[in-house]
Design brief:
InterPro entries: ECM_Regulatory_Proteins, FN3_dom, FN3_sf, Ig-like_fold. This protein is an all-beta fold. It is about 0% helix and about 45% strand.
Length: about 325
């Protein structure tokens, strides 16, 4: 007898003529083509008979795959997605997902893209507590049972924390940091100011704290850093009774160049309201992470009335092009 699976695997077995029975170990939830035939004493096969065999379901052996957040969790909500286990590990057709969230309370609601029985993703969770770490577990279920668990931890944001943190103008010993002011939709009271803590990534216990920054400021220079070092920083919002930390952000200072470098600036084109410049670096190459600051200042104007003009400064990352245009400039004027 030959038993052939859909993947081409063949199980061959023999049975004594008195029993006409044989046993093979097959996979769960699989279809096989079964061919049975006899052999004469001379070894000549008889005519074959054929049938199709489908095996029973088994308990899943694989967990859901690619469990992940759809974007960062906010203060009270999070969205997640995941995919089916590998086909050979499902052991049977899909029945539902078993989903568990810890910690959980009556205010937490799980909203699935399908009905609440099958619980197919994506999953949107509302009613979470701010600044809380959650553990989500998901398992695949078929008619035979529940399989292994996939899990993920995530943390909701704090109410009143700063967002949009960016490290700009990274030099070898300082970095310029900007951020967005906290949302006022909280009950912490009046914002008193900010504090920034930074530390080398290789020495997480060596925190350096800034002076208190006024609540109206959204930028700060972190100085006295070590060149060529990866740092982490966190910005704290200060309220009368609580100090709320932001997410941790990494940045890297520029290494000291091993030799001198020169930047040469060239005027490519100009019109009545636009100038286009380019620049080249000679000598020792600058680090890949280098940013360039290009500034245009009004020197004098030939117009009857001197136009009101603010100095324009652009921060440009080194993408290899090293060209920049300044538009909407007052005409008949000299610039530096």
């Amino acid at each position: 007898m030959n038993v052939t699976g859909v993947n081409g695997s063949v199980y061959a077995s023999n049975a004594e003529i008195q029993k006409l029975k044989t046993t093979d170990t097959l996979n769960y939830w699989s279809r096989y083509n079964v061919e049975a035939y006899g052999l004469t004493l001379a070894g000549v096969p008889t005519a074959s008979t054929f049938t199709i065999l489908e095996t029973e379901f088994g308990v899943p052996t694989g967990a859901p795959t690619n469990l992940h957040l759809i974007g960062p969790a906010n203060v009270t909500e999070a969205s997640l997605n995941w995919e089916l286990p590998m086909c050979e590990k499902r052991q049977g057709p899909f029945k539902s997902y078993v989903v568990n969230l810890d910690p959980h309370n009556d205010k937490v609601k799980m909203q699935f893209s399908s009905d609440s029985q099958t619980r197919k993703p994506p999953l949107h969770i509302v009613g979470l507590l701010p600044q809380t770490t959650y553990l989500l577990r998901v398992a695949f279920e078929n008619a035979a049972g529940i399989g292994p668990v996939a899990e993920i931890t995530f943390k909701t944001k704090a109410q009143g924390d700063v967002t949009g943190i960016r490290a700009l103008k990274q030099w070898n010993n300082e970095v310029f940091v900007t951020w967005l002011t906290p949302d006022i939709n909280h009950d912490h009271g009046t914002l008193l100011g900010f504090e920034i803590e930074h530390w080398p990534q290789s020495d997480v216990l060596n925190h350096t704290k800034s002076v208190r920054i006024s609540p109206g400021e959204t930028q700060y220079w972190i100085r006295n850093l070590t060149a060529g070092t990866t740092y982490q920083m966190q910005i704290f919002s200060l309220y009368p009774q609580v100090r709320i930390g932001s997410e941790v952000v990494s940045f890297e200072t520029v290494p000291h160049p091993s030799g001198p470098s020169w930047i040469s600036l060239q005027l490519l084109d100009r019109s009545s309201s636009t100038i286009q410049v380019s620049w080249t670096v000679t000598g020792n190459p600058l680090p890949v992470e280098t940013n360039y600051e290009v500034t245009v200042k009004l020197v004098r104007s030939l117009l009857p009335i001197t136009p009101h003009f603010s100095t324009i400064t652009r921060l440009v990352s080194d993408d290899g092009i090293r060209e920049l245009s300044f538009t909407d400039l007052p005409p008949a004027s000299e610039y530096h």
